[in-house]
Amino acid sequence: MRADARRNHERLLAEARAAFAAHGTDASLEDIARRAGVGIGTLYRHFPTREALLGAVVRDGLAGLLDRSAELATAPDPRAALVAWLRALITHAREYRGLSVALMSAAPGGSSTLAECGEPLRAAGDRLLTRARTAGAVRAGIPIEDLTKLAHAIALAAERSPEDPELADRLLDLTVRGLAP
Question: Which pTM value belongs to this model?
Answer without folding.
Answer: 0.81
